[in-house]
Write a structure and sequence with these properties.
mainly beta; 3-stranded antiparallel β-sheet; 7 strands; elongated
Length: 118
């Protein structure tokens, strides 16, 4: 399947991708680069009898377009290799403690005076 723009694809189904899915590209120097999968698409493979599931990514050469990962080249000229899941870092939740309630100065002073009087 060659790189095709979203508008050129015949979708059977389209679903958003879970954060962490990547398209892996093998660069000319042997290293790997990754691009985030934004959605998965079930598309007709061209013969009309079957369909293929492909990952959709932002086009590395035209950031305003979304294309299928297979057949797309990375900005460095690398070829699509496979898909990979990279678990995202867990979210850190910070809960701020509310400030302590204002103290009742008059009430505390009267308690101290009563205790002294005993």
């Amino acid at each position: 399947m060659s790189a095709r723009y979203l508008s050129d694809m015949a979708f059977n189904q389209l679903v958003p991708a879970e954060v962490g899915w990547k398209a892996v590209f093998t660069e000319l120097d042997g290293t790997e680069t990754m691009s985030r999968i934004v959605a998965w698409a079930s598309v007709d493979d061209g013969d009309g009898d079957s369909s293929a599931v492909v990952g959709l990514i932002v086009d590395p050469s035209e950031p305003s377009a979304i294309v299928s990962a297979p057949g797309t080249s990375s900005p460095g000229g690398g070829d699509f290799l496979r898909y990979r899941f990279v678990a995202p870092d867990p979210m850190k939740v910070v809960v701020e403690q509310p400030p302590p309630p204002p103290t009742d100065l008059v009430g505390e002073a009267s308690k101290k005076l009563i205790k002294r009087g005993r």
